[in-house]
Amino acid sequence: TRGVVAFYTGEDGTDSPIEALYTANCGGQTENNEVIFGGKPMPYLRSVACMPDRFAVADRDIASNRAADSAVEPEGRSMLREIALLQVMGFALPRRATSSYLKSAPDQSELQAWIDRTVELSQKERLRVVRNDSTLFSGFAQLIASAIYGEGRAALLLTPADVDYLLGGLSIKDAPQDVRASVAALLKDRILKLPASFDNRSQITRAFAIETIARALAFRSRLVKADGMKTQIARLRFDAARPVENGRLIIASSIAKPQPATQEKSKATTTGRIARSAGEMKSKEVIAKTSAVKESSPQIDSIPDGFEIDASAWLFRSFGDESYPVTRLTLIGGERITFHLNAAGRVDFLEAAVAEHSASSDRYSSVAQWQERVTAEEVERRLARARINVGRIESLTPVAFSESNRVTEMEITGYGGSARLHGPQIRSALGLKENLFVVDREMDASGHITAFVFTGRGWGHGVGMCQTGAYGLAKEGYSYTAILQKYYTGVKVRKAY
User: How would residue 56 be classed by pLDDT, with cut points 50, 70 and 90?
Assistant: First the structure.
């Protein structure tokens, strides 16, 4: 970059080198120069969002043509995620499950078919005992325990003392010991969720059965090594996402592995490489070739360049314990995901939690989000060093904000007077990382303030180029010229000498 200069054309038509201010971490949004430093607004030091432009974000999208249907159980909670998961795993379920269907009891034959499929996926031997009480809570609990752990094993995995401990305080003490052992094991492994009101002879609903089976299969799949995708249960995977590339799911554990140099493997790899580079193969031809892949084919275990998404894949965004059907998922990397691969090796079910970090390009820094607790006495000492003395602190109140939500004016009230801080003085006097924060008070039993808790984003003055954001944009594929023009609006970057 020797001799490369960023210029801005002034009102007189003259190009001048810019004053290239920069900040360590902008907290997701840079600031106008006059807000922080006063003086004349500089056209190239405008507040900008520290994130890729929309076209770049769209590259991180996974899309499906499946409509975002809904299915609810009587309590109003969506059951579509569990229904979708069982459907892609081969369970016979209706395309649209109504509330009346979910809240009613399953038929004996219907439930037996679900249990048989669970046993098959769990790689357990077919159950020898056929129960006539499978639609009752006690019988269903024993069937699920047998399907997941093996017939009669729940009582072997837990001692009577364990069972008594796990079920202590729960109203199932009158149940037979084998039922108690099954319920205890299922509760311990977070497979079973007890209904609000139940007894051993209470009738289960389809919603309860579907949710329990889905949780049971998720538990079982975590125990199965996904080696070459040789088992159907191993197609249900749990991982962390990396940023989406070209509409393909990239997982954190996708690492190139040595593959057997077989003729079949060589042909499959070559075909895939040609299809990706040419990009002209008709979709039905791609589907036909991909569908020919054997269920045990090792190339769909961990693919460095990602997994293709089935055109009608189920997509879900999860927030805590709730999942919502969506037609598009944006994955920026770091999201916890659950996904299922069909026989062709394409993703037909994908659930993604929200990433714990920010979606902004400056998220790679530990100060992108921060919190600091400062005692009232320490606040008074910091203010005193800045020659501000209001006595014992009574309140710290932000009273003015910029367009980027930075605190531009703060009122400080004490028992000995009051004062107002402005702009950079707020950060320097209070010893904070940035002006982008909110403040809360902690009080003792007598109502006196003991501490202030500042929760904020970023580090620095916030004007100009965000250093961490520039790094994030570089990871997104931005050139250095594009990064400069992102943070310094309207500039020209050219060779000057």
Answer: low
Rounded to 5, what percent of the chain is helix, strand, coil?
30, 25, 45
**Following DSSP, what letter does each residue of 157-187 receive, concatenated?**
HS-HHHHHHHTTTSS-TTS-HHHHHHHHHHH
Sheet holding 336-341, edge to edge: 248-251, 236-245, 336-341, 347-353, 309-319, 322-325
Query: Is the distance from CB of 37 to CB of 48 less than 8 angstroms?
Result: no
Amino acid at position 191, single letter? I
Tokens 């579509």 label which residue? 80
- What is the phi/psi pair of residue 299, to 5°? -70, -10
pLDDT per position as a tens digit, 148-198:
998 888 878 888 899 889 988 787 766 788 888 999 999 999 999 887 666
Count of alpha carbons within 13 angstroms of residue 237, beta-carbon side: 29
**Cα dihedral 340→342→346→350 (10° resolution):** -20
Structure confidence by residue, pLDDT tens digits, 270-288: 333 333 333 333 333 333 3
Residue 356 structure tokens: 């714990």
- Sheet of strand 407-414, all strands in order from the earlier edge strand to the far edge: 393-401, 407-414, 417-422
Q: Which residues of 123-142 are buried (b: 16+ CB within 10 A; e: fewer)?
A: ebeebeeebeebbbbbbbbb
